[in-house]
Amino acid sequence: MLVNETGERYMIDVHPDAELAPRDVVARANYRQIRDGHKPYLDARDAVGAAFPERFPTVFGLANQHGFDPRIDLLPVSPAAHYCMGGIAVDAAGRTSLDGLWAVGEVTSSGVHGANRLASNSLLEGLVMGERVATDIAGDGIDQDYAEAVRWLARGADQGFARSVYTLGKMYTYGLGVTSDKEKAFGLFTRAAELGNPRAQYNLARAYRDGDGVAQDFTRAAQWYRNAAQAGDAPAQAALGQRYAKGEGVPQDTEMALYWTSLAARQRLGRAVAARTEMVQSLSPAVVERVDALVSEFRPRVTTR
Hints:
Helices cover 52% and strands 3% of the residues. By secondary structure, it is mainly alpha-helical. The protein folds into 4 domains: 2-76, Alpha-Beta Complex (Flavocytochrome C3, Chain A, domain 1); 88-138, no CATH class; 143-195, no CATH class; 198-305, Serine Threonine Protein Phosphatase 5, Tetratricopeptide repeat, CATH 1.25.40. The protein has a 3-stranded antiparallel sheet with strand order 1-2-3, with no helix packed on it. The protein is flat and about 80 Å long. The termini are far apart.
């Protein structure tokens, strides 16, 4: 419960739920206590007491560092802004003041949270506002002209822009604005990969790995995975780590497997994080330390166009 230096439990007179009132109500009450010359405290001696070290070890340790033992002492409290949200003003559909620009998530100031932000704003922002923005974008009156998109992508491809070549390959893969042509798409992916596009290199590697539209070739798959991995593509790094772990297209090498997997894990790729955790359990600390040192020195190859 909350008390001041006189022992008064002041929240009882503020709200029917006392300390369980909405957080903005509690924060304002604490502020008023300080403004009026009082000192607000958290009294957990009866509610938690001797169990404090086991139930709240982090808070207990922090309190001890500042000379407090919450099992027997009152803990001083103060209102504080522990989180900051938003800045871009949006409406209920996520529209900003700029035509064609939507914003969603913690970057926005949507006004839906009010003074008492809920414990998990990510749920509201991600699921509710995210869906509203997607729905609004889908129905904003912009016609999807894939044929026109293909024409512009073709112009970029003619000028040697790898991203345009790669995206054009995607259009041929799914038949968007053109007749679906897997052979044409594969040729475009190959060209984009040769121009240095990491996504094209990754997709080409998968095609050779699976024999999708081309003769299966693990060696070529590993080569293209390596090119994309060196450019910093996390899925390619994870895949190359798997190749070294299995000896598929490359010599089996545990340290190289850990190296490439660790690079992908550093980018928080879920499957790589899990794979790295499993790998380090079977390796000596010296090996892990040596590989981690190499990982820290990695700099992705810069790609252009």
